[in-house]
Design goal:
34% helix, 16% strand, single chain, eight-stranded mixed sheet, alpha/beta, Rossmann fold, 14 helices
């Protein structure tokens, strides 16, 4: 198979779908790897590094899309990239279609086979192994950037995250105790903040309670608790995830008026539409905005702020699945592995993932003819 990796073109995105070590693994499996020139330059991987790994360099993204059987990326294809996709070409990347009807329609029109990292499931259907490393990064970053914007000159309340002797630390509310929320809470606890985690799953509540052992309060998540307690917080991290579907709006605009001026909210769920009613996607160029004196940080590719660490972590997670697709072909690979099959979002002009179809109010086919066996 010819595996292609174009340079990411989303604003402030320096990660790369294939680092040189990943390219070398594909080559060692007998595949041809083509990389757009400069694809890894943002994280100091040169074209020579890729050549030493056995890959070939192409001058433009168009050449990559024209030649490759499978495209491996990081972020969802921009509309100009969607136009370069062709029928039966495999696209393996993050998609987050539930919040992006234009991209969904463009993928449908291309008749490509689009497999989303974020809906591939783990062993026995549990967990999201290709989303997990970026959720870990985003969760940890959320508290780091949140503490930065709590500084008064950045628009925050002026409260030090860890406090000082005789002065209370910042109060941090983490909504969602999954991978992102857990990592946000770990960093916040490590920084000395007063942390509360909201979670609905009882098994997860017990796990979090056992892990933090009183260093963080773990509370059953409901709207009543959020309404009464969100106004008391300095930093609120939204880390709610419904795989493939739009995030629920758990903090409403009316709640903002009750918050202390300078409260900071960080929406990790913005890729799926955000879990705050007032969230709108921002970029690293212009990461925050203020509504009702509340600072909103809603960067849609948070891990892009630390692209070297993020790209390596993502490549390590994705590589075994990508090799399976290349070695077996997409049909056989999906038929052989139901968890990888769960990553299929669009196939030859049809949406195949129910959460995406529901969010976009579009029809879907859960079992396309090619996978009926």
């Amino acid at each position: 198979m010819i595996v292609g990796c174009p340079k990411e073109i989303k604003a402030q995105e320096y990660r790369v779908g294939l680092v040189p070590s990943s390219a070398k693994e594909y080559v060692n499996h007998g595949h041809k790897v083509i990389i757009e020139t400069g694809a890894g330059a943002g994280i100091n991987f040169t074209d020579e590094d890729y050549k030493e790994a056995g890959a070939e360099i192409r001058g433009t993204a168009q050449e990559i899309f024209d030649e490759a059987d499978m495209i491996v990326k990081v972020k969802e294809p921009q509309l100009q990239e969607c136009k370069m996709l062709r029928e039966d070409q495999v696209l393996f990347t993050y998609l987050h279609l539930a919040a992006d009807p234009a991209q969904a329609q463009a993928l449908i029109d291309s008749k490509c086979v689009a497999i989303a990292y974020e809906t591939v499931t783990g062993r026995d259907g549990h967990g999201l192994p290709l989303l997990a490393p970026m959720s870990e990064v985003a969760g940890r970053l959320s508290v780091i950037v949140g503490s930065y914007y709590l500084q008064k000159h950045m628009g925050g309340t002026g409260r030090l995250m860890c406090g000082v002797p005789g002065v209370l630390p910042a109060r941090v509310l983490v909504i969602g105790g999954g991978v992102a929320g857990f990592n946000a809470a770990r960093v916040a606890v490590g920084m000395g903040a007063s942390v509360t985690i909201l979670e609905k799953d009882h098994d997860r509540i017990r796990y979090l309670d056992d892990y933090f052992r009183g260093q963080a309060d773990v509370v059953y998540s409901n709207i009543d608790y959020i309404e009464k307690n969100a106004p008391q917080m300095d930093l609120i991290v939204g880390a709610v995830l419904i795989p493939g579907a739009s995030a629920p709006k758990l903090v409403t605009k009316s709640m903002l008026k009750q918050m202390t001026p300078g409260t900071v909210i960080v929406d990790i769920a913005i890729d799926q539409g955000g879990c705050f009613e007032t969230s709108k996607a921002t970029t690293h160029n212009d990461p925050v905005y203020v509504i009702d004196d509340v600072v909103h940080y809603c960067v849609a590719n948070m891990p892009g702020a630390v692209p070297l660490s993020s790209a390596l972590a993502l490549n390590h997670a994705v590589l075994p699945y990508g090799l399976r697709l290349a070695d077996m072909g997409w049909k056989e690979a999906l038929l052989a592995d139901r968890n990888l099959r769960n990553g299929l979002n669009v196939c030859r002009g049809e949406i195949t993932y129910e959460g995406v179809a529901t969010a976009l109010d579009m029809p879907f086919n859960p079992e396309p003819e090619e996978l009926a066996a």
